[in-house]
Design brief:
Elements lengths: L9 H5 L2 H10 L2 E4 L4 E4 L2 H8 L5 E2 L4 E5 L6 E5 L22 H13 L1 H6 L1 H18 L1 E3 H6 L1 H11 L6 H14 L6 H11 L3 H13 L7 H10 L5 H32 L1 H9 L4 H11 L6 E5 L3 E3 L2 E3 L4 E4 L1 H5 L34 H17 L1 E6 L21 E6 L1
Parallel strand pairs: 2-10
Antiparallel strand pairs: 1-2, 3-7, 4-5, 6-12, 7-10, 8-9, 11-12
Helix pairs in contact: 4-12, 6-17, 8-9, 8-13, 9-10, 9-13, 11-12, 12-13, 13-15, 13-17, 15-17
């Protein structure tokens, strides 16, 4: 009988931090039995991996998966017939290595820079206020479905250059993509996900129209990518892949982060009171929420040559998973790592948005959106709590993302 790692235990998936602490202390380069995959859980070792892209390549299309049919863990692609590795021609951003990664990132940074995202802050504030205008008189909000899930995808649509009414379609496509790599998808469900995953018509149509017209709006990512193709800075395959990546990952970071942060605040009235009194600390709270429970639980590296990591032999051809949440609670990196501390001297030294050259290109957007969501929620209420009549809070069963299914809040308005 195959040995099943606690990683796949539903209780551990829901609350993984005790498991991560054990790995950090006793087995920081942990081989998941039967998978040739190693979990890396300390900050020092994660930094070591990220610094060596010629040994630990980001070009991979395989993810840890546990089959309910035979109880065996292993690696699986997002599609049933996925190859072990994607080719460099199809690798973009999170799954690309230098020098391609640097070239691609330079293009998208033109639209996703901190300055550009901060300029969109009033737009997101208006969206949040519109939802709260309806929720506050009712005294309640289902935070995830009413705000945290739909609003970030409206912003993704705007960044791309698509109309707001395409946001729900983009959300379905993005959620299907992250579900497919979550680690617990049955073959029949994976087949079902194929249709929404490939439902990228609005993006393709807008891109093709832009290319045909030659009118490249620099305020839209579709326009930026189309111009880059014309200038031979990107291939058309890369442009499409980058646009689709924004759809699948662009909303996820904000959705999960704003869910985590709102939950922490709802459980901590003292923290609510402090942030209402000192709203300038809300950006620090965003960083702490991202550190404690990052939107993404790990990213993968393909090992190109035999190497040693933390005293463990890691052979060529194996896989390494950078377990961001484990490193973010490493006591050697953060004093009292399980606590919210708004006065840390190194608030952005966490790996909640990745690290190094692969620091999430969408992090500026997620930071702005989360800050605005918490600012408006706090400023327009005197208190809010989790509905005591609701079922216990749960996250989607996934080894990839950390998104709450529901977060019903009771609101006391100003």
């Amino acid at each position: 009988m195959a040995v099943v790692d606690p990683l796949f235990d539903p209780l551990v998936v829901e609350d993984p931090h005790g498991y991560y602490a054990e790995l950090r202390a006793n087995d920081p380069v942990h081989e998941v039995p039967g998978t040739s995959t190693f979990l890396v859980s300390t900050m020092e070792l994660i930094h070591e991996v990220v610094a060596q892209p010629t040994v630990f390549s980001s070009i991979t299309a395989q993810f840890l998966h546990h089959s309910a049919n035979d109880g065996k863990p292993g690696l699986q692609g997002a599609f049933p017939d996925a190859e072990r590795d994607i080719t460099a021609a199809g690798a973009v951003l999170a799954t690309a290595d230098p020098p391609d990664h640097s070239r691609q990132r330079k293009v998208v940074a033109r639209r996703l820079s901190s300055t550009a995202m901060q300029a969109m802050e009033p737009e997101f504030r208006s969206l949040v206020d519109h939802v709260l205008d309806v929720a506050l008189p009712a005294g309640r909000i289902e935070w995830m479905s009413q705000l945290a899930e739909p609003l970030p995808m409206v912003m993704v649509a705007r960044v791309l250059g698509l109309p707001d009414d395409e946001a729900s379609r983009l959300k379905e496509q993005g959620y299907a993509s992250v579900e497919a790599i979550g680690g617990f998808v049955a073959p029949e469900r994976l087949a079902e996900l194929g249709q929404p995953m490939m439902d990228v018509g609005p993006v393709v149509d807008a891109y093709l129209d832009t290319r045909a017209s030659g009118q490249y709006n620099p305020d839209t990512l579709i326009g930026v990518c189309a111009r880059a193709v014309d200038a031979s800075e990107l291939t058309e395959t890369e442009a499409f892949a980058m646009l689709f990546l924004l759809v699948s990952a662009g909303g996820e970071s904000t959705t999960s982060l704003t869910g985590t942060g709102a939950r922490i605040l709802a459980e901590r009235p003292d923290l609510q009171d402090r942030l209402r009194a000192e709203p300038e600390l809300i950006p620090a709270f965003v960083e702490e929420a991202c550190r404690l429970d990052p939107p993404f639980r790990g990213h993968y590296r393909h090992v190109l040559s035999d190497t040693e990591l933390g005293g463990v032999t890691v052979p060529a051809g194996s896989t390494v998973v950078l377990v961001w949440p484990a490193a973010n609670r490493d006591p050697l990196a953060f004093p009292m790592p399980d606590n919210i501390d708004l006065d840390r001297s190194n608030p952005r030294q966490h790996v909640g948005f990745g690290w190094g050259i692969h620091l999430c290109v969408g992090a500026p957007l997620a930071r702005v959106e989360a800050k605005v969501a918490f600012e408006q929620l706090l400023s327009r209420t005197t208190s809010f709590t989790i509905d005591p009549a609701s079922a216990p809070l749960r996250h989607h069963q996934s080894l990839m993302i950390r998104r709450l299914i529901e977060l019903p809040l009771i609101l006391d308005a100003q």
